[in-house]
Amino acid sequence: MKRVAVLSVHTSPLEQPGTGDAGGMNVYIVQTAVRMARRGVEVEIFTRATSSDLPPVAELAPGVTVRHVVAGPFEGLGKEELPGQLCAFTAGVLRAEARQDPGHYDVVHSHYWLSGQVGWLARERWGVPLVHTAHTLAKVKNANLASHDTPEPRMRVIGEEQVVAEADLLVANTDVEAGELIKLYDADSAKVAVVPPGVDLDRFTPGDREAARAALGLRPDAVVLAFVGRIQPLKAPDVLLKAAADLLARAPGVRDRLVVLVVGGPSGSGMKTPEDLKLLAGELGISDVVRFLPPQGGAALARVYRAADVVAVPSHNESFGLVALEAQACGTPVVAAAVGGLPVAVRDGVSGLLVAGHEPAAWGRALAQVVLHPAFREELASNAVGHARRFSWDRTTDSLLAGYAQARDVFREEVFA
Ligand code: UDP
Q: In what order do the strands lie in the sheet with 352-355?
């Protein structure tokens, strides 16, 4: 395996995750690409150019390049408008390959269905296997919609079904996602591989909680509940706010110490901005305890996790939930919704708690169980680190490379049969 073409049409690996369309998928692509390059496999990531200032080719890390493909206007194009630009994007990808020696790429790995559509054609033209990671599935999302969210269109469902039928290997985060691909999308089970994602164990380490709190201007004895992620209905930051109000009704004594940290930027439709959440906090009478921070990168994000007593992941659906692993790697227990991949990311009663449904009372109770019982919290916190260490991007990368090799062998057998 010499070189992989990675397709990331709708979001660039160079973007700061935590706002807009940039999230776990960006982190996944960067972390695995860097590690593939370290193993001697070059990675070229194709993404749509969103500014005229971007160079056609940029180096992300040694052995990892980002190719900016011009497809439609640079700015102001929403994700829902991208299906109309897939032809232009595909043309750009095929042109870039045509300028290389024959056999430049050994495999094409597409992320999200929009990229899958491009990969489908690249596979045909280049004679290489298509490996696809869905990241989220429209049928699953539509079955778990928040009340104020917009359903995914039929066009996406059809597009996903096509990619599932055409891909040589489908990479799923968990057994649950593999089952969804097989049951809901009629995927061939022989073509589905479960590859758990990882966590950056150098960046997300346990650290000094008081120092982290001081850096954020929080008092040492604060009771800190944190939400980290894109502010969108699917992620349900509103559930955390309602749960915080419930917690205060249960334990009014913590009012002067309670802080709800909401970290991330606007994304998608519905209750999507800090403004919407500020209004909600006002309605709930907790404006004084809620603090908003823009998306955090580098060491600042690890500080947020360390400062928190608990990180809440109340999502309506989550194919995995990297935030849950990162928080645990920093020694912070997680209270998560029992949906999608979160029951794998969090060990219920061991490294955190899983909550069925999104009723504020159930969430308030679970949060109270952790933050009002220091011995229980400490037990969860120490288990959380060990649990997170079971996941690593190195392992993810090795499994992906093994998957690529397997897909190539099967592809060759099929082509030369
Ligand atoms: N993230 C970040 N800064 C922020 C908020 C989030 O870098 O302020 C990152 C976070 O570290 C995680 C990713 O965004 O790696 C979110 O991934 P997750 O799987 O939790 O959710 P997704 O965005 O894929 O839905």
A: 290-293, 258-263, 223-228, 310-313, 334-337, 352-355
Is 0.90 surpassed by the pTM of this model? yes
Q: Collapsing DSSP states into helix, strand and coil, what is residue 67?
A: strand
Instruction: Look at strands 352-355 and 334-337 and give their pairing.
Output: parallel
Sign, CA dihedral 400-406-408-410, equals negative
Phi, psi of 254 (to 5 degrees): -90, 0
Token readout for 257 is 């110490």
Distance, in Å, from the CA atom of 154 to the CA atom of 137, rounded to the nearest integer, reads 12
Which 3 state secondary structure label does DSSP give 58? strand
Look up residue 274 and give its two tokens. 């800090």
Nearest C-alpha neighbor of 171 from the set 192, 140, 190: 192
Is there an atom of ligand 1 within 6 Å of 133 CB? Answer: no
Please work out whether the CB of residue 321 comes within 6 Å of at least one atom of ligand 1. Answer: yes
**Ligand 1 centroid to residue 24 C-alpha, Å:** 5
Counting from 1 in the atom list of ligand 1, the atom nearest the Cα of 313 is: 20
Strands 352-355 and 169-172: unpaired
CA nearest 352: which of 363, 361, 141, 360? Answer: 363
ipTM of the complex, rounded to two decimals: 0.99
Q: How far is the CA of 145 from the centre of ligand 1 (A)?
A: 20
Question: Angle CA(301)–CA(333)–CA(296) in degrees, nearest 5?
Answer: 10
Would you list which residues are annotated within the binding site for Mg(2+)? 305-306, 308, 332
pLDDT tens figures, 111-162? 999 999 999 999 999 999 999 999 999 999 999 998 878 899 999 999 999 9
- Place 414 in a pLDDT band, splitting at 50, 70 and 90: confident
Q: Kindly report, residue by residue over 314-373, the tens digit of the pLDDT.
A: 999 999 999 999 999 999 999 999 999 999 999 999 999 999 999 999 999 999 999 999
Q: What is the DSSP string of 352-393?
A: EEEESS--HHHHHHHHHHHHT-HHHHHHHHHHHHHHHTT--H
